[in-house]
Specification:
423 residues; alpha/beta; Rossmann fold; three-stranded antiparallel beta sheet; 17 helices
Amino acid sequence: MKKYKKFNFILFLGDLLLFYVSLYVAASLRNLRPDTDHFLQLAAPFTAIFIFWILLLFIFDFYKKPPYEKKLLFFRNLFIFFLSAFVSGVIYFYFYPLEPITPKTILILTIVVFITGSTIWRYLLTHSLELKKLTKKFLIVGEDEEIKKITDINLKKRGYFLVATYDIDDQKGDIFDKKMKKDLNKVDFAVVGRGVDKSLSERLPMDVSYIDFLDFYENLEERIPLVCIDNLWILKNLADGDRGRYMKTKRVLEIPVSVVGLIMTAIISPLIFLLIKIDSPGPVIYKQVRRGYKEKEFVLYKFRTMTDSNKDKKVTRIGRLLRKLKIDELPQFWNVLKGDLSFIGPRPEWIRLAEKFEENIPFYSLRYMVKPGITGWAQINCRGTYKVGEEYEKLSYDFYYLKNYSPTLDLIIILKTVRALFL
């Protein structure tokens, strides 16, 4: 994983340099000669938009996976980046406060040169470093329910190769030890499950790096397997006084943002009201009681997207569009302003569903430690569900969010949510 981070950091530095090289080439092409003076004049105003473009590259996963792994996805994201970069550039220079700069030709040339250079840069870097050498080999010692699922994960795409799995309950004796030690000499590290006892740990060689299975799984899947959660894990990972301080800081930031959101909602509301009423009879605003922070119940507001019928509820034509664009959730700015919701947090569940999950899933009520959110780590990684079995997966993402509750993770969720709106 560290090797891939270094690879992506090199990509990032190369992109940063390419932005300025592209600007210089664009200025020179525009004036049909090398033009350093024009480049230096444009470098400062372009720097701000370059920073935003770097965020766009992050949003569209240009630093997440090795390039060319999925060529169609790569070039689709590249095209979306081109459109997003052009639109954001036009808006930026239209409102640029210092002087009237309208580098339309240079803006387009800069983006085209950068996209061409960035594609070549990724291709050359990928083949020169030989990504196979970045893959880390490992084996698993021990047996957990979740360990079995690791073999179903495409580890190669994550930078790992599983050499072998050793179930300590099925195999014992000298032959087992010799084979395991032989495989341990081939790997970069070994993942140790909960079933490893003292006798086995004493027989394991000490010149190998060992990683706890839970830490490895969390890093790999970015969620916490529920089978590994117990009271000790809760005390160790969720008892944190900083969480309350960060919640107060978030609240200070969310109040003005929710006010601006409500103003924008009020501007477009008449049109939405009209479309909903024309499409189907019933109220414009949908209300439902949900369970939130510290198990407090509150009324959640949305624009109605389904027919107002108790017998046969269907998503309306306008409702389908509102859901796709996430416009149906705009009234929740009011919930944020009131303090019922945060912008980011676990999904606020319907009361009946919450009671069902609390009854059947251990430690489910821990998700009420923070305010529920309009978007969240679980929401961007899996869909909502009514089934207890599927809720286990969603809750594993909630626990990851609770453990890693921080401004950094919230920023990542915001960027991924924005990306989901484009794709």
